[in-house]
Design goal:
This protein has helices spanning about 50-65, 90-100, 110-130, 140-145; strands at about 5-10, 15-20, 30-35, 40-45, 155, 165-175, 185-190, 195-200, 205-210. By secondary structure, it is α+β, with helices and mostly antiparallel strands.
């Protein structure tokens, strides 16, 4: 005849609860931390069955809740992300991604003209960011120095959505996983087009080009 095991919970004041499984000599206790800290809920077993050992585990937990693991358990090491370099190969992958969208994605392919401009811009940045890991790129350390002295000329910017005065920007979006995990947006600056205005004179009209302010 099978005996059904019972499971009970007792309050562990200020800490969580004690999970009790079974009855009599077969009874097993486990102290479980169950707390909210800074808006985040932590629910983790101490894997300890005595008050003293459980309290020691709780004190370890209180020192670093997010990195806690029971004593004797080696914390899981997070694999270091591989560096990302703006190489010719990465540029080609980005251009292919832009020109040939996945049918399941709701986006249109870039035009041939825009692909040409992107190749020029990205090639320019590849020289400026040679040896710079794009995962740790810094605006002040890497981007601003490269743009210094560019003036009002059109130039590509891998960070900001606005560039020099008198220019507007066009965002190309983020590289997909197909082009590795480059976690930066790429933008390029383009000059404003002259505005055209017409003034009627007699039976005809002449177009006049008005430069932007």
């Amino acid at each position: 005849m099978d005996v059904k095991r019972t499971v009970k919970k007792l309050l562990w004041p200020g800490r969580g609860y004690i999970r009790i499984v079974g009855n009599g000599k077969d009874q097993r206790r486990t102290y479980v931390i169950n707390k909210h800290i800074d808006g985040k809920k932590f629910h983790v077993s101490t894997r300890r069955d005595t008050p003293a050992e459980a309290e020691a585990e709780y004190q370890r937990f209180a020192q670093a809740p997010r990195g806690y693991s029971p004593a004797g358990d080696a914390p899981k090491a997070q694999p270091a992300a591989d560096p990302v370099w703006l190489t010719a190969d990465l540029i080609e992958k980005q251009l292919h991604y832009s020109a040939h969208p996945d049918p399941q994605e709701r986006r249109r392919p870039n035009s041939k003209g825009w692909l040409y401009k992107k190749r020029v811009y990205l090639s320019w940045w590849a020289e400026e960011l040679r040896g710079v890991n794009l995962r740790s790129i810094d605006l002040k350390e890497h981007v601003y120095p490269a743009l210094k002295g560019m003036g009002g000329r059109a130039h590509p910017s891998p960070y900001s959505r606005t560039s020099s005065r008198g220019c507007t920007t066009r965002s190309t979006g983020r590289l997909s996983s197909a082009a590795t995990s480059l976690d930066a947006s790429i933008s390029t600056s383009t000059f404003r087009r002259p505005r055209r205005s017409s003034r009627a004179s007699g039976s005809g009209s002449r177009a006049r080009v008005t430069e932007p302010p």
